[in-house]
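Reviewer 2 asked us to include a model.

Predict the structure of this chain.
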Amino acid sequence: MKDLKREQFTVLDNKRPPKKLLAFEAETALPLRLGLLMDASNSVRNHFVGQQQAAVKFLEQSIRSDKDQAFVVAFNERAAIAQDYTNDASQLAKGVMAIRPGGGTALWDALYYVSRERLMPGPRDKTFVRRVIIVVSDGDDNQSHFTRKEATEMLQRAGVIVYAISTNQGKVDDRGDSDLKALADATGGRAFLFDDTRNIADALRKVAEELQSQYCITYEPDAPDANGQFRSVQIAVDDKKLKVRAQKGYFPRQ
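Predicted model (structure tokens):
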């Protein structure tokens, strides 16, 4: 939703109100750093061309400024950069369409690698940017060395929001879907769980729209600490008809 005001939000950092709110702005004003992670394992082979076409359209809709940058990663047992950071939609499309599926699935390894190597802010990085991962997968990891918990912590350290698009087809109580939802919830994103992969295009369209209606709240904690431990964050809005999706917390920079 657009046109919300700072006064409508309540923030708690480690269950305490901030010492001072420093800024409130629509995140569309902030540069976007977006990673598209596409499951290229054997399990997605039957519908992969349609997924590629939907992904290309999504990238065209999402990279709207010269300040925005995106990259494409294909993963099976290993993660591979199909197209590194660029704002050129045609180059991103070539990267997506060049992916060929085959092999097992190492989802958690791919997320761990991408958040650490491509999205982690540097120690001197003072520029505010939106860090987002879109992962298109069935969530059925069978090859990773890292766990879901380890991948999630690395994403939280990098300040990344994850949108998960499930490619499962009508499975009931599927573990992959459960893992994708847990991943999105832990990072303040959203999971789209469907029983038909034709809905992937619609899910990606909704993500593109949501990326244009986000807000950034900057504040000074009331009781900051330097021990590097995870700090929980709770954000509420005064309009009960609205639902807030936000990062569950952060690791302070050392």
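Helices lie at 48-62, 89-97, 107-119, 148-158, 175-187, 200-210. The longest strand covers residues 32-39. We have added this to the supplementary material.
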